[in-house]
Amino acid sequence: MKTSTLTGIILTLVIQLFLVQTSPAARIKDIAKINGVRSNQLIGYGLVTGLSGTGDDMKNSLFTLQSINNMMMRNGITLNATQISNIKIKNVAAVMVTADLPPFAKPGSTIDVEVSSIGDAKSLAGGTLIMTPLKGIDHQVYAIAQGALTIGAFSFGGKTAKVQKNHPTAGRIANGALIENTVPFAIGENGTITYQLENADFTTADHMSKAINAAFGPQTALPVDSGTVKITIPKAFQSKVVDFIAGIESLNVETDSIARVVVDERTGTIVMGKDVKLSTVAVSHGNLSLVINETPAVIQPNPLLNAPPLVTPPQTTTTSVEEGGQLTVLNMPKGVSLGDIANALNSIGATPRDLIAIFQAIKASGAMQGELIVL
To answer: Can you tell me the distance from the alpha carbon of 71 to that of 80, in angstroms, rounded to the nearest whole number?
Structure first.
């Protein structure tokens, strides 16, 4: 069996994960966020005009027809029921507009918006979004969106043939919404700040607290649980909260995590943590044969020197064979890592999918000291 270049690269990267013996250090700003400092989602309903005959069909999208009538009434144009029913314009489309309101955004600043069709419009290319209020979960208006759409797609053709690239019924307006209201938030209220870890872990929370206390004095930080660290603002920084936060977020912390293996059967992707270990286990998989042994090396001195034998560190040897039509057994010594298995199987051309099947079987047997996640 020949190993493809892609498979070799994938397995090589997997094996290299086990070469790192120490946990990486990361900045606090990269592993934790201040509780309450977050973005808020906004949504609005609007109309896109100026389409070249690719808008909603007024017979099928009645809500678009009603929206056009309401817009005309607000601009002083009144139509009777017969006139409304006879409207057959195709250059308007009903859309939903979404955006994220960042923390500490102030009135007058702008944000990007996403626009997507909710009717049967063929394309939004060349369209302009009419003034659309964007509301939060509390139904309050926080921004107003308007402007020309950027689609990044096209769609054209006739009854028998059609050419399309990407999705022409969704677009974006850079800086398309003007913020009118903001979400109030006070940093350091009651003299404390609470950090929330992105990945909850007791060891990481403890390391983070010790790093902060070493920099700003004892009792400054206290880990509440595996995902929360409560910080008391020192008196010297009561009036300089931003400087205090900047100092905290620049500190390096040694992170830790649970021993975990993540596999994706659809793509053959495998990601393994360095701390995953195996108990003594025997594995058989098809016609793949693999044996990993450790042999102590003993050097015999010259017999005339009357010196004791010299024992060097054990030498690990890996032997891999592929035998057609034969089921063989994989004997593993206690404490071997999954990286050793990946390295040996890579030498005989095993694919990532072979590794996934082996890892799942090892986990089911209870021999894997770690968590296996299958996507």
So the answer is: 14
Reading the block at residue 183, the tokens are 């979400």
pLDDT per residue rounded down to tens, the chain (375 residues): 444 444 444 444 444 444 444 456 889 999 999 988 889 999 999 999 999 888 888 777 888 888 888 888 888 888 777 777 777 788 999 999 999 999 989 999 999 999 999 988 888 988 999 999 999 999 999 999 999 999 877 666 656 556 666 778 899 999 999 999 988 888 887 889 999 999 889 999 999 999 999 999 998 999 999 999 999 999 989 889 999 999 999 999 988 888 888 888 777 777 777 777 777 666 666 665 555 444 555 555 666 556 565 555 555 444 444 555 444 455 555 556 666 666 666 665 667 777 777 778 778 877 777 888 887
Query: What DSSP string runs through 150-204?
Result: B---EEEE-SS-EEEES-TTEEEEEEEEEE-------TTGGGEEEEEESS--HHH
Distance CA 342, CA 309 (A): 35
pTM of the predicted model as reported, rounded to 2 decimal places: 0.67
Lookup: tokens for 230: 């409560």
DSSP code per residue over 9-45: HHHHHHHHTTS--SPPEEEHHHHEEETT---EEEEEE
Tell me how far apart the alpha carbons of residues 334 and 347 are, in angstroms, rounded to a whole number.
Answer: 22
Domain ranges of the chain: 5-22+259-374, 25-37+192-254, 40-179
User: What is the domain class of 25-37+192-254 according to CATH?
Assistant: alpha beta
Measured CA to CA, the distance from residue 187 to residue 228 in angstroms comes to: 16
What's the alpha-carbon Rg for the chain, to the nearest Å?
32
